[in-house]
């Protein structure tokens, strides 16, 4: 069987399975309502019939007992045993009752009929025997309006055979069950007929679609009745005709584009694979705990004791290093999405080198490496954050490869008004065979076992991309055994343009009303604690529904809305941002997320939504609040 025929058979089999399921659903749709109605009506009518039979039997028993009591009143009063026996035997002989017992409290007892020990299917009915009181000899002697008085002198017990009642009950139950089964059978037959009437044209349509899928463009559904399915079949036939008309043109175009498509497909697959692995390394779940950790640390720092301060500062530095690593991966996604724009500003290299020494100095001392910085009082125009990442990654690699040696970070002015920044080490060096691929993603020298403790091989690739964004290029000079030198150039500027030291105390923040939306309780607690330390009033929401409800009630009071992108139960933070813009237009709605996919970044850029990337540095959050205060 050819591949086309196999695909056609697979589509037909899948369609057959779907059709069979639809047939069962249609049968159930027809049978279930009828079954419920039939069972309910049959149960109601059968119950009514049984109650009627029971009532009639009881009424007859009580009536017979009362008649015998009335007839035997005077004979029992007079002690006329022959008359009483005659009444009892006459009642039994008339087949009105199976046994009759008449008696009083004394020794006067009369019975007739089947002995009581043999009456297994009989039911007894009682009636008192009463005679009129002797106070009035006749009705004429009774006072006007007075009721006649009776005195009970005995009792009558009548036994009626209940076998006939049981037979009638059995007949009623059998008839009810038969009617219900007949109704179910008719409903099933009707449902099956309807299902077949629907499934026949559907099977023809499925077969036609399978044939079209297999390349038989001349297949047609043909007539399929006069209902809506016929319209569907007609539309499929028209589509098949259109496909058959256009197939020659499409084949010609496909042949012309095949060569180019093959090459571009390979490139796209490689780019997609690299981007997927980048995004997996900087996933949203990895950023969540780091973000919460940073918030809690910064909320604890102001109130820490002198003994606690060094440990918290070290912990704060560690989280900043982790944040920097994750931000590198985020930058790759932004570069792929073409949404990362550098913020150029004049900056003194002494400031950058000082910050880098704080981060990498301890690491260098642990590995016995002498880390030297020579800024030569140079200043450049660049994006400070991106430049820090490039130099920091180069320094980290140099320290790791020059164990026991020296790493020199220096800057010198070159021709054309530019400053060359160099990172030199006297480590093992890089062979020429590796230098051509050293900036490729996931390529590592000296790590054939892919030990993840030595990194993922992303650092130099990230540096190369950021350098291109800064309109420069990273160059490498290296020889095995003689160390390596990485360098890149940036535009030079005057020192007077150097911005204010980043270590200045930030300006105070006006108390703001903030709404924080996140499904992570730790992040909610950390953000609320940090904002509370800054004098802000904070409302928290763990879901989109709670957030929209609070915006609907208190929208006019909010100044800032901080919302996570991925909320619980597949809720979208962008929907909350849209509601915030509608219900609280005066508030600044900001998305806080660790999502780094290019599609998400493009979407945020298109809608003009500010983004704070997890883990959020408290300084960035405070700067955002400060801009809101100024607004």
UniProtKB/TrEMBL annotation:
Q: Where are the transmembrane segments?
A: 26-45, 171-191
Q: A single Pfam family, by name? A: HATPase_c
Tell me its EC number(s), please: 2.7.13.3
Q: Tell me where in this chain the PTM 4-aspartylphosphate is found.
A: 564
| Catalysed transformations (reactions) | ATP + protein L-histidine = ADP + protein N-phospho-L-histidine
Primary location: membrane
SUPFAM superfamilies of this UniProt entry? ATPase domain of HSP90 chaperone/DNA topoisomerase II/histidine kinase, CheY-like, HAMP domain-like, Homodimeric domain of signal transducing histidine kinase
Matching Gene3D superfamilies: 1.10.287.130, 3.40.50.2300, 6.10.340.10, Histidine kinase-like ATPase, C-terminal domain
The Histidine kinase domain extends over 281-494
EC class of the enzyme, as a word: transferase
What PROSITE patterns is this protein classified in? HAMP, HIS_KIN, RESPONSE_REGULATORY
Keyword list (alphabetical) reads: Kinase, Membrane, Phosphoprotein, Transferase, Transmembrane, Transmembrane helix
Keyword Protease attached: no
Q: Where is the HAMP domain?
A: 196-248
Q: Which InterPro entries match?
A: CheY-like_superfamily, HAMP_dom, HATPase_C_sf, HATPase_dom, His_kinase_dom, HisK_dim/P_dom, HisK_dim/P_sf, Sig_transdc_His_kin-like_C
Q: What is this protein called?
A: histidine kinase
Q: Read off the lineage from the record.
A: Bacteria, Pseudomonadati, Pseudomonadota, Betaproteobacteria, Burkholderiales
